[in-house]
Specification:
single chain; mainly alpha; 2 helices; 0% strand
Length: 75
């Protein structure tokens, strides 16, 4: 294997980071649009559920990042 070639774990981690950041960006846009259309009450009802989901996904992503860093440093 070439020295500069990415491992599958690194590729998966990068894809998940990109997807998470895109989801947060889309939620920010949805929040701004809900303010504009005066439908903030719907977003406020969904916010605790979304917050719990992002909290759990964030912890799992952090563990995956740490695992990737350790395995890449050992490689």
């Amino acid at each position: 294997m070439a020295k500069n070639q990415d491992t599958p774990l690194l590729r998966i981690t990068l894809i998940l980071i990109k997807s998470s950041l895109l989801a947060i960006f889309c939620l920010a846009i949805a929040y701004i649009l809900s303010i504009g259309f005066e439908a903030l009450h719907i977003f406020v009802m969904l916010l605790p559920f979304v917050g719990k989901c992002f909290y759990k996904l964030g912890i799992m992503l952090l563990c995956l990042i740490l695992t990737t860093v350790v395995l890449e440093s050992l490689r």
